[in-house]
Amino acid sequence: MPLTEMRAEDLLAILRRIVRDFSPLLPGMRLEVVSSEAFRARLLGKPILPGEALEGLRPAAPPQGDRQEEASPLYPLHAFPSTSVVMVDVEGMRALIAEEDRRLQRVLTEGMILREVIYLATSRQPFPDPRSRAETILRRHWPFQYAALRSVGLTVSGFERPATAENLAKDN
Q1: Considering 24, 26, 50, 172, which has the largest number of Cβ atoms within 10 A of its Cβ?
Q2: Is the pTM of this model over 0.70?
Q3: Residue 171: burial class (beta carbons within 10 Å; 0-12, 13-18, 19+)
Q4: Which residues contact 154 (CB under 8 A, 6 or more apart)?
Q5: pLDDT band at 16 (very low <50, low <70, confident <90, very high)
Q6: DSSP, res 83
């Protein structure tokens, strides 16, 4: 089956639907779509200039790892608990899932946004390690999305692709 890229509009529709579905749980939560450059700048603590939070999209190069792991791709979604914002680099997200089969692209997109939204919810609770707790909730309640993320190495355990079936079975 030939690989086809998911359109940016389709990705945004999925992201907006899930944010809208969870808005009763997290009032004030919003999705912020930014360019790849603005995404990297914001994660590095630099301010985003007015007008850089874009609803329209422009072509951007796939993000390169700037933060902790230089060789790893930069995860194209990031939730900010203090402001209830989920920031997304749609072009980076498209580049990340482009190599996967079209049938998995929707599931991967859903899994990535669900994990960030659940992280916003768990970060409001007085328990330690909200990121791991969000992933546990995702694994229990959305197992197909979790399995898709795990199969491409996009879980808390890291960005690397699991090499063996034994590594894939560790969380079970």
Answers
A1: 26
A2: yes
A3: middle
A4: 75, 96, 108, 111, 112
A5: very high
A6: T
